[in-house]
Amino acid sequence: MRIEKLVSRMHKAISTFNLIADGDKIAVGLSGGKDSRAMLKALSLYRHHSPQKFELIAITVDVFKALDKAELEAFCKSCEVELKVVESDIGEVVFDIRKEKNPCSLCAKMRRGALASTARELNCNKLALAHTADDILSTFMLSLNFENRLSTLSPKSYLSKTEITVIRPFIYVWEGEIKNLEPKLPVTKNPCPVDKKTERENAVKILKKFDEISPNFSKKLFTAIMSPERYNLIKNN
Fold this sequence. Notes:
This protein has a single domain (3-230), classed as HUPs (Rossmann fold, 3-Layer(aba) Sandwich), CATH 3.40.50.620. Helices cover 46% and strands 13% of the residues. The protein contains 9 helices and 6 strands, in the order αβαβαβααβαββααα. It has helices spanning 3-17, 34-46, 69-78, 90-97, 104-121, 133-147, 175-179, 199-213, 217-225, and strands at 25-29, 55-62, 82-87, 126-128, 156-159, 164-167. Strands 3-2-1-4-6-5 form a 6-stranded mixed beta sheet, sandwiched between helices. α6 packs across α9 (217-225). 30% of the residues are buried.
């Protein structure tokens, strides 16, 4: 898939959920992985012909103090976007001090907090996170399994503590499309010690099983989640 196709999918999300407005200064959470790199590249291309005029700045939280900052800076330069690197002890807190058995939730919360507070310091009003359609589904499955709730990520949400609006421009993009992106983007290996060994990965495996039993189950579930007019759940009178 060409990057232009991802830009088109992203434009659909931006238009449907009013994710970007004139004058926005958007911080882009850049981890170095394929999803966040693709989103930064797509946003950098989109702004050149967008009906809204907005600014971009990339923020990377160095969770494990293992980033190749020079390589990330070079990538951001190719996107004509400034990079801000935030030094962090999140990895040490989560794995060495607290020794979390299920570290993902705390790590994500702390990383998102660091991104939002840094975005505020840089006078940004929005924070773009590279959650995809797959993340919408896996979060739905995690919420169902561990919280007994029907809930998932929102395309747009407001963080009152930092007065930052979180936007997810890639919610109509599938990870498989990013993997097959042409030309390919450089990717940083994830240094997390539990990478590919998380409950989210288990949720992904469950969805794959459903797809084996019922072809396109994941896409049908995604359509149902994204279509609130079709909801018909039990309500108290």
